[in-house]
Amino acid sequence: MGRDHTFPDPPNRRLLLKGALAAGALTAMPAGVAHASGAAQTSSGRPPYANPLVRNRADPHINRHTDGFYYFTATAPEYDRIILRRSRTLRGLSTAAESVIWRKHATGVMGAHIWAPEIHRIDGKWYIYFASAPAEDIWAIRIWVLENSHRDPFKGTWVERGQLKTAWETFSLDATTFTHRGSRYLAWAQHEPGMNNNTAVWLSRMADPLTLTGPQVRLTTPELPWEVIGFKVNEGPSVIKRNGRLFMTYSASATDFNYCMGLLTIDADADLMDPANWSKSPTPVFTSNDTTKQYGPGHNSFTVAEDGCTDVLVYHARQYKDIVGDPLNDPNRHTRIQRLGWKPDGTPDFGVPVADAPTPNTR
């Protein structure tokens, strides 16, 4: 993620593969928790952020725009609408007014499972990429796009620009877009016909904000033991550019406490469209933590702190390990943020998901 440009879980997958194939934060730390977990202190001695940042909002995306505002969107647990908040500070997103900028259709396409919206400013317009399914076929999930030409995304009209077409009409979601060396790319998760998994992560160049062009290549498929617990899932990609490399995070396994984040890395001078140029970390980089009592961290995005320099990790997690019933129906995936560190070798240091803390009295 360039500092002047935003880069960038769906729920439980018990029925996902069956349905898809049928359809074709910085917070106070408890003693003994390492600084690497992201709890940097302010000069006043208290952390600048308190988690959860926004309750009952999963798959969070925060875009710091050039107008000085942070724009926040995420999955609502009813899966029926797209919401938007903004604030001049990250902490302010906790109490910022929330607007519903679009609601699902009563019938037909875009009628169910409204998941994982992301908001991007591209060529003078706002775009929201999100996943949804027809009301009559709720697992036939695809990627859809909204567009708003007004400079203020809370004003103007959000126009439905239709489905973003990929190579196959199969289960697809979690689209994110970024630019590199003058080209715009889309990364997303999709089920590949004939593969014995739920979703892999794909990459394609874009001709414009609504159209893919050229080859669509698979960057990672669930194959390691920590990627296939409950479900065989790689999803929720997000990209950050630093230190001569691009780093792509993704989330893996079922959306209970097994949900975790993996990492792909590529040299900034390499061809992004050649999967051989991407290296995959053999172990997860961000996982559940019993000490801080954070479970199932994942579906992240990246932003930057108010100082314009400090990288911030945005993600969701639950406050408990055991879930009653289907995780799909559990609304308590809350948005959290914390400082993203960097190791001496130039790779990201995610640490552990920080513990929750009471919201400060002042902000």
Q: Your description of this structure?
A:
The strands form six sheets. The chain has a four-stranded antiparallel beta sheet, with no helix packed on it. Strands 5-6-7-8 form a four-stranded antiparallel beta sheet, with no helix packed on it. 2% of the residues lie in helices and 41% in strands. Strand 20 and strand 21 form a beta hairpin. It is built from one helix and 21 strands. The protein starts with 15 loop residues before the first helix and ends in a 14-residue tail after the last strand.
Globally, the shape reads globular
pLDDT under 50 segments (min length 5)? Answer: 1-37, 39-45
- Cα distance, first to last residue? 27 Å
Q: State the share of residues found in helices, binned by percent.
A: under 10%
Indicate the radius of gyration in whole angstroms: 19 Å
Number of helices: 1
The major beta sheet can be summarized as: 4 strands, antiparallel
Oligomer: single chain
Structural category is mainly beta
Q: What is the succession of H and E elements? A: HEEEEEEEEEEEEEEEEEEEEE
Tally of DSSP β-strands: 21
How big a fraction of the residues is strand?
35-45%
Which short descriptors sum up this protein?
4-stranded antiparallel beta sheet, mainly beta, 21 strands, disordered N terminus, 41% strand, globular, 1 helix, 363 residues, 2% helix
